[in-house]
Each structure stands twice: as C-alpha cells, then as structure tokens.
Amino acid sequence: MYILIKAAFEHGMNRYVFVTYRQAAATVAIAPVAFFLDRQRMPPFDIKALFHIFMLALLGITLEQVLYFSGFEYTTSTYAATITNLIPAIAFVMACLLRLENVNIKSPRGQAKVIGTIICVGGAMIMTFVKGPILEFFHYLMTSKSLSDILGAKSLVDTKDNLTLGIILLIISVTAYSAWISYQAWVFKDCPAQLVLTALMLLMGTVQCSVIAVSFERSAAAWRLAWNYRLLTYIYSGVFCSAIGFFIQSWCINKRGPIFAAAFYPLSSVITAILEPIFLHVDLYVGSAVGMAVIIVGLYVVLWGKAQDSKGGRTKILHNQMGDEFFSNREGGERQEKVVEMPKAENPNEPR
User: Fold this and answer.
1) Alpha-carbon 221 to chain mean position
2) Beta carbons of 96 and 262 less than 8 angstroms apart
3) 173 in helix, strand or coil?
4) Which among 57, 81, 147, 210 could disulfide-bond with 204, CB atoms 3.0 to 4.6 Å apart, if both were Cys?
5) What is the pLDDT of residues 150-164, one digit of tens each?
6) Cβ atoms within 10 Å, residue 252
7) Band of the pLDDT at 195, cuts 50, 70, 90?
8) What 3-state DSSP class applies to 99?
9) CB-based contact 60:187 (threshold 8 Å)
10) Cα(317)–Cα(189) distance, integer angstroms
C-alpha cells in the first residue's frame, strides 16, 4: 500500500479524497460479508455502544490517517517513518496504564515484553538514521522501469517550511492509532461479531472523513473517478489494508491483547524497505538491513513473552466491566444470569 500511495501522491492524488474513498471501498467490501456471516451473532448495539464505535472510527481511521498524511506533507519520509514506528512503545504504555496487559517486570515474560518492544523501536530508528554502503544485490531485482516513471509522475517532495507543525501532526496521529488499539481492547474485547464491528467502524470513518474532505477539497476534478491508477489505489488500500487489515487487527487484539497487535507494526517498514528498491528504484543501505534484523529479533522476543502468557493461562486481556456491559445476553435491557443449582444430598451426613 505504501508503494502505491507514494507513487499516487507524486501523480497528484489528493490526500483527503484518498482517505475518504479508501474507507468507502472498505465499507462496500466488508459490509455484505459481515451481514451474511455475522448476522446471527450480531449483539444488540445501544446508543452507548454506537458512541464507542464512533470514537474508534475517529481515533483509528479519521484522526490517524488525515493527520498522518497532513504531517507527511509538512515533513519528510524520514520523520514520518521514525514517528510511526513509535506505535508499539506508545501502545505498550497505554496498555499498562489501562491494565489491559499484565506486565510483571520481575518475571522473564514481563521483561521480554518490555525489552522486545524497546528492541523493535530501536531497530526502526536504525533503519531511519543509519545508512552505510548501498546494497548492490537489489539492483539485480529492480524492474526495468520504476513505478513513478511508468505513471509519468514527478516527485512533489521539496523542502518543508513548517517542520514543527508536521512533527506535531505525526505525533498526534500515532498517538490516536495507539489509543485505537487500547480502546478497542478495553471496550469490545468480548464482541462476538468482529466483522460487524469492523463494518460499522469503517462506515462511521467514511462519514467522518467525507465531512473533513469536503471542507478542504471541493474541486470536482479531485473527486472524479476513472479507470486509472488512483482508482486502483483506492480499491487496493480500502479492501486489503482497511477492510481485511482492520478485521485481522481487531481479531488479534481480541485474542492476544494490544501489545501483541502493536508489536508487528514495524514489520511494515521492513517489507516497504524491501519493495521500494524493486518497484521505485530506491537504494537500500546496510543500515536499513541491520535495522530489519534488529526489528525481527525484538518481535520474536515480544512473541516469546506472549507465548509464556498463553502457557500460564493469561491469553485473554484483563477483565473489564465496561467491555462485558455491551455483549452479555440481554432480555428487555437486563443481563441474564444463568443460575446452576447444586443437587441436594439425600443423607445430610453424605458429602455434597
């Protein structure tokens, strides 16, 4: 997705229009699947639950994507990549503060979570700031023409004047996304219909993004759809990265908690760094390769700590009364409690 978006922005794609069409494509793709597969398991959503879904869409979709691409315009890809890879660290702190993860710093598995998260962030920093010699190996894998040359695009990257504003927007963006991870684990950890939850979240995100996009971009030419590269970018990023991606992330948060889901985020930098030399003819340096190895090591350390949690019976995140409030069996607005009576012993002297 990053490769497609980078070329599309150079081709003149508007960031607000992109975010709106991306969520619209995701909603159209996942809504029918959610209706037919999760219709029987769909819980009764009340006003309070819909409000929480609205907040999830605001944090994980609208604020995260709009602010990220706005901050990217005022900074460079180096700043964007560095700040984005702070998501595991921010999500880790939020999960600990909200008691969504049980981190005992004195136990080996607790130490593995902390150390692994630090290693992941450190590897991302190495990828960003350390260069070194160019890896010539990837020159043999390059396509005959870069994606930008095929599209006839010219780079729009230039020196940005308002660097401070761009950094602030990026920090708010990654903080909002980290809050989305923790918020979902906090409120909807027991939701039986993850597809329905994802579809509603994407629908509300589409409405929110469209309001912002219309406020900033009212040119009909920017909104016009055609069979071109922009449409491919809308559909691919919406279907695969928003619809399928958000569903998988929600499922993983439900099963393993927020730290597990956030730990994989730096891998996107690793995969992008491998694909960029091939399709965009960008040089890959030794420092980036070292950073990739460090990220993978840190990820496996975190996964080892989570595996020890599973062996110890701590697979689920900690109990949360708010999450149970929405998805318990209800009848007439009241929670149903199943009472099991113990059989009475015929002889009072016999043990029960």
Assistant:
1) 30
2) no
3) helix
4) 57
5) 655 554 444 346 777
6) 16
7) confident
8) coil
9) no
10) 8
DSSP state of 351: -
Percentage helix, strand, coil for the chain under 3-state DSSP, each rounded to 5: 70, 0, 30
* 237 phi, psi to nearest 5 deg: -65, -35
User: Which run of H or E residues covers position 122?
Assistant: helix 108-129
Tell me which residue of 48, 74, 93, 279 sits closest to 166, measured CA to CA.
Answer: 74
Contacts of 17 (CB under 8 A, 6+ apart): 213, 217, 222, 223
Distance CA 102, CA 309 (A): 9
Residue type, 210: S
For residues 101 and 247, the answer to whether their CB atoms sit within 8 Å is no
Q: What is the pLDDT of residues 228-256, one digit of tens each?
A: 888 999 999 999 989 998 889 888 888 88
12: left (phi over 0), alpha (psi -120 to 50) or beta: left
How is residue 57 written in tokens?
A: 């869409």
* 233 Cβ neighbours under 8 A, 6+ residues apart: 4, 5, 8, 13, 18
Instruction: Say what the pTM is.
Output: 0.73
Among 278, 320, 272, residue whose Cα is nearest residue 292: 272
Contact 217, 14 (CB under 8 A): yes
Q: What is the DSSP letter of 139?
A: G
Q: Which residue has the tokens 């700031």?
A: 129
User: How far apart, in whole angstroms, are the C-alpha atoms of residue 142 and residue 124?
Assistant: 24
Contact 259, 317 (CB under 8 A): no
Tokens of residue 298, six digits: 């840190």
